C-alpha cells in the first residue's frame, strides 16, 4: 500500500519546484563558501592548521539554517498540494489507511532531504578538492558534517510535518515555520534540549553521535504522535 | 430487498450540536437515492461518515452488508465519491490527476481513457486542470469517482455551481449509471427539482433528522391535488359524506375530498346540497413537491 501511495505522492509534487529546491539548498550552502574562499582564501587558510576541517566548519555554519528552512518550505509545499482544493476528502476516501497516507508524506520528505544532504556532501567535496586543501581528504568528517545534521533535524521535520498536515489554516504552519527558522538561527545561544538547535551539532554533550541518536529517537516519537493525531482527526 | 447502505441510529455530535441525529438510512441496490435537505441539515456530515472521513459519535454503518468500522478499506475499494467541491491537483493535467489515483487503485491504464470518455473530457486530457471550467472540474471529479468501477457512487451536491447545460449533462450521466454499469448512486442536493429528475428513492433530512424515506412515487403521492369545500358546518358535512361512503375530512373549517375526479366532486356536492348544507366555495388546491418539502422541513407533519 505504501509503495502505491509513494508513487502517487511523487507524481503529485511534479511541477511544484520541489526538486529544484532540493538542489538549490545544498548548492546555496556551498556557494556561500565559494564566495568566502574566492574573496579571502589566503586569510582563511591561515586560520588553522587543518584546512579541510576548517573548510568543513565554514560550510557547516550555514547547513542547519538551510536545512530547517528547507524543512519548513517543503512540508508546507507537500501539505499545500492536498490543502489547495481540500483533496484530503478524496485521498482519505480511497482504500488506503490513514497511517499509510501520513507515512507516505513523511517518506517523501525524508527522500527529498536525504537527497539534499547527499548533494551537500558531493558539492562540499567537489569544491574542497578544487580548493586543494591538502592530500588527506577527511571523508569521515565530510560524511558526518553532511548527514548528521539531517538525522539531528528529524524531530524538527516530524513536528513541522505534523503541524502542516493537521492545520486547516495556512497561517499556523507558516507561523510555526518562521519561529522554527528564527530558533535555528539563534541556535548558538539556546539551551541544548531545544530540537531546533540539534542540526547545528553544537552542544555540551561532547559527542555529536548523541545528537544523531536523540534526533532519530525523538523524531520517531514526534512522528508517531503526529500520525496518531492525524488518524484520529476527522476530515472536514 | 438488498440494501447497499444501511445505517443504524447514526449520530454525529459537534460539541453540543447534534449535526446528525439517529439516522437510519436504507438505500436499496440499483437505485438512484436522492438525499434531500436544506443547507446545514446534516447531508454532508452523513456522507462524510459513510466515506469514513468522519467517525460517528454513535451508531453503525453497513455498506454492502459489511461494517464500515471494521472493513473500511475493502469497502472503499468499491465506492466512488465526489464530496462537495471537486478535489483536484491544479498543477497537474486531467490525465495526471487520474493517474495519481490510478496508482493507488491499481486499475489498468486504459481505464483513464475510458472514464475520460464517459465524462467527455478526452480533448482536455492533457490540459492542466487549473484552466478547467467548474463544469469540467466537476466532470473530472465524476471520472475520478468512476475510475475503479465502483458498485456504489456517493455524490454530494454534484451539480452545485454548474451552469444549466452542465447540470443537464451531469444529470444525464448520473441517470444512466445504474442501468449501464450496475452502480447504486447516492446523490445529495438541497434542490428538490434536482432530486425529482434523477432519483428513484428519496430520503429527506432536516436538522439532522431523517423525516422521510421512501420511493419518489410515494413522495409524489403527497403532491396530489386536493379538493376543498367551504361549507356551513364542516364537521357535520364531512361526517355526512363519510356516512355515504365518500372519503372526506374536516380541517380548519374546510372539507377535504380525497378523490378529486369530476364525478366524485359532483357526487359529493349533490349529497351536501341534498342534505341541506350551504356550499360556498369549491376549490382545487395543488401542492407542489416544493410545498411538501418546505412543510416537512419546517417540522410540519404530512
Automatic annotation (TrEMBL), chain A:
The chain crosses the membrane at residues 20-39, 59-81, 102-127, 147-165, 172-190, 210-231. Keywords: Membrane, Transmembrane, Transmembrane helix. The keyword Transmembrane applies. It holds the Pfam family ABC2_membrane_4. The keyword Ribonucleoprotein does not apply. PANTHER family: INTEGRAL MEMBRANE PROTEIN-RELATED, MEMBRANE PROTEIN. This is Permease. It comes from Lentibacillus persicus.
Automatic annotation (TrEMBL), chain B:
PROSITE patterns: ABC_TRANSPORTER_1, ABC_TRANSPORTER_2. InterPro entries: AAA+_ATPase, ABC_transporter-like_ATP-bd, ABC_transporter-like_CS, P-loop_NTPase. The keyword Transmembrane does not apply. The keyword Nucleotide-binding applies. Residues 5-232 form the ABC transporter domain. SUPFAM superfamilies: P-loop containing nucleoside triphosphate hydrolases (SSF52540). Gene3D superfamilies: P-loop containing nucleotide triphosphate hydrolases (3.40.50.300). Keywords: ATP-binding, Nucleotide-binding, Transport. It comes from the Bacteria. GO terms for molecular function: ATP binding; ATP hydrolysis activity. Belongs to the ABC transporter superfamily. This is ABC-2 type transport system ATP-binding protein. It comes from Lentibacillus persicus.
